[in-house]
Automatic annotation (TrEMBL):
The keyword Transmembrane applies. The keyword Transmembrane applies. The chain crosses the membrane at residues 6-25, 37-58, 64-83, 88-106. It comes from Caballeronia sordidicola. InterPro entries: Brnchd-chn_aa_trnsp_AzlD (IPR008407). Keywords: Membrane, Transmembrane, Transmembrane helix. This is Branched-subunit amino acid transport protein. Pfam families: AzlD (PF05437).
Length: 107
């Protein structure tokens, strides 16, 4: 019973937080400093997800070697993105490098 109440409590709190933006809508305004800070949230969250998976793909310590396919593909992706500024091209080339590295170089 305690587990059920805990899950229901978390669901209610999550629903209340997410629906507050829709309920208050235009009446809720943030100061410019907060709006600026909130604009960095997506980049920060994405970085927090991708960097650990790239540096330590097997969950242990950092694997900073040429055998780390994720790291090699990420470095290539950074280079392609810096040169072309085209997201789809960056994704396509980095995926090709990742699979090539995984299947040919590391294997």
């Amino acid at each position: 019973m305690n587990d059920f109440l805990l899950i229901m409590g978390m669901a209610v709190i999550t629903y209340a937080i997410r629906s507050a933006v829709f309920v208050f809508g235009e009446r809720l305004s943030f100061p410019p400093l907060v709006r600026t800070a909130l604009s960095f949230v997506p980049v920060t969250v994405l970085t927090a997800i991708i960097v650990p998976m790239t540096i330590a793909p097997h969950g242990g310590g950092a694997e900073l070697t040429w055998r780390n396919s994720q790291l090699v593909a990420a470095i290539v992706a950074l280079g392609v993105c810096a040169l072309t500024r085209k997201p789809l091209l960056t994704i396509a080339i980095s995926l090709a490098v990742f699979f090539f590295w995984q299947l040919v170089v590391v294997a």
